[in-house]
């Protein structure tokens, strides 16, 4: 079993373009959620989201690329560039042959579906652009990353709704730990903030119209975000031999299925995933100082998650910190675990715990230290990142300070 | 078809019961409608009466729309039809 470390990180999300801007926003407890801006937004009853602002794809990609890159692929490529440049790796020869890319997304090219359905149904056109399929497919982002950086090893896309990125990173972790790959590029992306994407979520009646307030007694639902997070997972010896900067070590991962309900979360399933991650990392409950919560701000998730943390950690649940950064960047659905892993890295590396903002009222059913409203300085040795998806599919990662 | 008959029909269909098994005093819980079934019933009611119901699944009991019994649901629908006419 090989040790696995993170040697590169990249992101674009509502809090900023790039890791430094995102971490600065998290430290300041800034909110990236605001009024949505896209065609037909006035026909929605939910009109807020964590949208990537001032984004001009034409300045970043050429015409040929834009024809092939859905917004979720564009976000992925930007985040991957930042991560791979930071790692300093060049993929050639044997390294290229075994290094791959595993990414998570729930919806893939949602706005490509949306635009083209509109074109044929609403505008009555009988012809769509020839590249609609390669643009919208869920694996488009992974494939373009592999092409751009010559990654020729195991590459695929994982789609497990809100846990997609965590499942993807768990896979990448196992590929490097087992020795199958020296390096894996991993993370995820989502871009559902278009009319059809938000309209679908509206139907479920779990969206907030005003703010995402995880763990707060007056929380009233989730708020969607968009963007990408991408990381370079590398064999520790390989990273050390080339003198790479190590951001954190990935020490464990666990996945579980509730096998219970298509939308309601399960305390047992969530607790099993957290306990499994500790066992996989061979650490004790008391080693964990911080949990980046799934923390969606819905009634169902937050109380179930807090009960699961209490079950998995016993008395230590009262001593650890748990925050939901979704309060700032929104819920990136399939990309959310990737952006949230940045908060874990910040906790371990910088000793800064990202807050749960918009927290207004304590909820007795969420009686944990949720780091309300303001970031906190604290030394943390081990951090967990939780993701619990619709369909009852859970994935938890454990990271350690290096 | 009046509001009461149509509403009972929608709830019966969701609960997989006969309309005659549903009374005005029935609660959704009694007829076996869970949270997902409730969201689907609200949707069906909105479609049937062309109204928009203020309802958030995060706090169903605190919504302005009273879902405590079939009677309260029918009353709520009648009010919304008047308001949104």
From TrEMBL, chain A:
Chain ranges of the Ketosynthase family 3 (KS3) domain: 1-401
CDD domains: KAS_I_II
Cross-referenced InterPro entries: Beta-ketoacyl_synthase, Ketoacyl_synth_AS, Ketoacyl_synth_C, Ketoacyl_synth_N, PKS_Beta-ketoAc_synthase_dom, Thiolase-like
GO MF annotations in UniProt: 3-oxoacyl-[acyl-carrier-protein] synthase activity
Compartment list: Cell inner membrane
Primary subcellular site in the record, as a coarse category: membrane
GO biological process, any: fatty acid biosynthetic process
Any one GO cellular component localisation term in the record: plasma membrane
Statement: the UniProt record of this protein carries the keyword Zinc: no
Keyword Transport on entry: no
Free-text function comment from the UniProt entry: Proposed to synthesize NOD factor fatty acyl chain. Involved in the synthesis of a highly unsaturated fatty acid moiety, which forms part of a lipo-oligosaccharide that is responsible for host specificity.
Database matches in PANTHER family: 3-OXOACYL-[ACYL-CARRIER-PROTEIN] SYNTHASE, POLYKETIDE SYNTHASE-RELATED
Designated name of the protein: Nodulation protein E
UniProtKB/TrEMBL annotation, chain B:
InterPro entries for the chain: ACP-like_sf, PP-bd_ACP, Ppantetheine_attach_site
Segments forming a coiled coil: none
Domain Carrier: 1-81
Residue stretches spanning the membrane: none
Signal sequence residues: none
Domain of life: Bacteria
Keywords: Phosphopantetheine, Phosphoprotein
Stated name of the protein: Acyl carrier protein
């Amino acid at each position: 079993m090989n040790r696995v470390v993170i040697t590169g990180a990249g992101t674009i999300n509502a809090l900023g373009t790039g890791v430094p801007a995102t971490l600065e926003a998290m430290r300041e407890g800034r909110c990236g959620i605001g009024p949505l801006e896209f065609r037909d937004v006035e026909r929605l009853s939910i009109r807020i989201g964590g949208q990537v602002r001032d984004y001009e794809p034409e300045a970043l990609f050429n015409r040929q690329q834009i024809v092939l890159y859905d917004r979720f692929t564009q976000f992925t490529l930007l985040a991957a560039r930042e991560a791979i440049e930071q790692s300093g790796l060049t993929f050639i020869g044997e390294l290229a042959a075994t290094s791959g890319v595993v990414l998570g997304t729930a919806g893939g090219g949602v706005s490509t579906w949306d635009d083209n359905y509109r074109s044929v149904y609403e505008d009555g056109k009988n012809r769509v652009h020839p590249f609609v399929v390669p643009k919208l497919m869920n694996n488009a982002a992974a494939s373009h990353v592999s092409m751009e950086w010559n990654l020729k090893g195991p590459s695929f896309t994982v789609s497990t709704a809100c846990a997609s990125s965590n499942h993807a990173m768990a896979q990448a972790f196992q590929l490097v730990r087992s020795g199958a790959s020296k390096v894996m590029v991993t993370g995820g992306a989502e871009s559902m903030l278009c009319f059809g994407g938000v309209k679908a979520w509206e139907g479920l009646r779990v969206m907030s119209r005003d703010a995402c307030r995880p763990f707060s007694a007056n929380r009233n639902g989730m708020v969607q975000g968009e963007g990408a997070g991408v990381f370079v997972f590398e064999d520790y010896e390989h990273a050390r031999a080339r003198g790479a900067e190590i951001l954190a070590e990935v020490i464990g991962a666990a996945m579980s299925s509730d096998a219970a309900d298509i939308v309601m979360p399960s305390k047992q399933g969530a607790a099993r995933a957290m306990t499994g991650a500790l066992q996989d990392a061979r650490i004790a409950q008391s080693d964990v100082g911080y949990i980046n919560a799934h923390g969606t701000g819905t009634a169902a998730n937050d109380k179930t998650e807090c009960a699961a943390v209490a079950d998995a950690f016993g008395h230590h649940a009262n001593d650890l910190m748990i925050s939901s950064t979704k309060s700032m960047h929104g819920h990136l659905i399939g990309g959310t675990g990737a952006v949230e892993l940045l908060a874990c890295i910040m906790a371990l590396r910088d000793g800064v715990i990202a807050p749960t903002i918009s927290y207004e009222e304590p909820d007795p059913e969420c009686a944990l230290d949720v780091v309300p409203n303001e970031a906190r300085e604290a030394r943390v040795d081990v951090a967990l990142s939780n993701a619990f998806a619709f369909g009852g599919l859970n994935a938890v990662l454990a990271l350690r300070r290096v | 078809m009046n509001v009461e008959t149509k509403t009972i029909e929608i709830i019966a269909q969701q609960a997989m019961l006969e309309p005659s098994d549903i009374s005005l005093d029935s609660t959704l819980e009694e007829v076996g409608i869970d949270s997902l079934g409730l969201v689907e019933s609200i949707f069906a009611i909105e479609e049937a009466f062309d109204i928009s119901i203020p309802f958030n699944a995060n706090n169903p009991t605190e919504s302005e729309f009273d879902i405590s019994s079939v009677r309260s649901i029918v009353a709520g629908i009648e009010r919304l039809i008047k308001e949104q006419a």
